[in-house]
């Protein structure tokens, strides 16, 4: 099969595309013909060696995928040949990646794809949808009529947070970088979409949340959080969610934080159990079928341009170029 792989960690240029053996599904695994895979920031960190998970080479990156089951390994029973499925949480802790024509994976990480959902949409919504769901529900315990704030409301995780929070009955505030992105964000369901270049951004937030006492759930997607500002905008007993910024070491306003009875929740989606992630996936599938969840596709590359796709992700994650809305897809 053709695959994108690396023989050593490094810059996007270390990615090669070529022929390697098609994997054989092992115990409890299925073989999937990949229809689409997605590129996430964590894929670039693993490829670059920032996260030391690529230890056996050739190493295939890629957490997310959607496609069709073509073979079953011993004792695999949840799916049958011909079923359409999607997954996340691959290429981690020794698992095979998805940036290839075929991928073999444990069926516990696979979920059925809704009949009306394309492989492209399923792959685009995998990691970001599960991440948003875990943050809002498992960690924040979101309730209807609460106010949710998220940075980057048209980004991968941000656009998922907007939609899932709205589906749960919350009021949603999101920041974006342009008027065009404000319109996109409102179409996704945001009640207030603010251009973060605006000089009165916090005044707009305070006016919107005045009757609610502040923000109940702050979903932080930025790598360098500013806790003084965040805590000042929170409602009593609000929850701040952290899921990015490995190297961040910000100052923290302990006094203002505890006198508001606030909570700080950090999580990484790949630490969630298979059962927890399957619960998220089941809900995401249901929301898609109800028209309440639409994964956002930003840019698509062929497998031969996997290195370019990784470079484009880094430009928007590390260099903050702001040229991406939605997810990067790679099609085999």
Question: Can you summarize this structure?
Answer:
The protein has ten helices and 15 strands. The chain is α/β, with parallel strands linked by helices. The strands form three sheets. Strands 3, 4, 5, 6, 7, 14 and 15 form a seven-stranded mixed sheet that branches. It has a six-stranded parallel sheet with strand order 10-9-8-11-12-13, sandwiched between helices. Strands 1-2 form a two-stranded antiparallel ribbon.
Characteristics of this structure?
alpha/beta; 2 domains; seven-stranded mixed sheet; six-stranded parallel sheet; 15 strands; globular
Strand content: 25-35%
Q: Spell out the helices and strands N to C.
A: EEEHEEEEHHEHEHEHEHEHEHEHE
Instruction: Give the beta-strand count.
Output: 15
- What is the CATH architecture term of the largest domain? Alpha-Beta Complex
Q: What is the fold named in CATH at topology level of the largest domain?
A: Quinone Oxidoreductase, Chain A, domain 1
Give the distance, in angstroms, between the N- and C-terminal Cα atoms: 10 Å
Low-confidence spans: pLDDT under 50, at least 5 residues?
Answer: none
**CATH class category label of the largest domain:** Alpha Beta
Helix content: 25-40%
Mean pLDDT across all amino acids: 96
The CATH superfamily of the largest domain is known as Medium-chain alcohol dehydrogenases, catalytic domain
Shape: globular
**Please, how many domains?**
2
- Largest sheet descriptor: 7 strands, mixed
- Assembly annotation: single chain
Question: Structural class of the helix and strand makeup?
Answer: alpha/beta
Number of helical segments with 4 or more residues? 10
């Amino acid at each position: 099969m053709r695959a994108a792989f690396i023989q050593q960690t490094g810059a996007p240029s270390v990615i090669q595309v070529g022929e390697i053996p098609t994997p054989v599904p092992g115990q409890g695994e299925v073989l999937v013909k990949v229809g689409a895979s997605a590129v996430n920031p964590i894929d670039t960190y693993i490829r670059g060696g920032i996260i030391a998970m690529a230890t056996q080479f050739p190493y295939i990156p890629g957490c997310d995928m959607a496609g069709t089951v073509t073979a079953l390994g011993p004792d695999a029973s949840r799916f049958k040949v011909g079923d359409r499925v999607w997954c996340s949480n691959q290429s981690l802790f020794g698992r095979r990646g998805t940036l290839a024509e075929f991928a073999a994976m444990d069926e516990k990480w696979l979920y059925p794809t809704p009949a009306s959902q394309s492989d492209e949409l399923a792959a685009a919504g995998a990691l970001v949808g599960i991440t948003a769901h875990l943050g809002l529900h498992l960690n924040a315990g979101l309730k209807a009529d609460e106010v949710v704030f998220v940075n980057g409301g048209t980004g991968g995780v941000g656009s998922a947070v907007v939609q899932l929070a709205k589906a749960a009955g919350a009021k949603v505030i999101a920041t974006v970088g342009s008027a065009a992105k404000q319109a996109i964000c409102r179409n996704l369901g945001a009640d207030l979409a603010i251009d973060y270049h605006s000089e009165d951004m916090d005044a707009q937030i305070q006016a919107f949340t005045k009757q609610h006492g502040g923000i109940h759930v702050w979903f932080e997607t930025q790598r360098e959080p500013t806790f003084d500002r965040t805590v000042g905008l929170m409602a009593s007993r609000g929850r701040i969610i952290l899921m990015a910024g490995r190297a961040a070491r910000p100052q923290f306003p302990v006094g203002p934080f505890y006198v508001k009875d606030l909570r700080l929740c950090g999580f990484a989606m790949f630490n969630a159990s298979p059962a927890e992630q399957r619960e998220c996936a089941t809900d995401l599938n249901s929301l898609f079928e109800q028209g309440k969840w639409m994964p956002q596709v930003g840019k698509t590359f062929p497998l031969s341009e996997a290195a370019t796709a990784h470079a484009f992700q880094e430009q928007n994650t590390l260099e903050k170029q702001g040229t991406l809305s939605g997810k990067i897809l790679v099609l085999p």
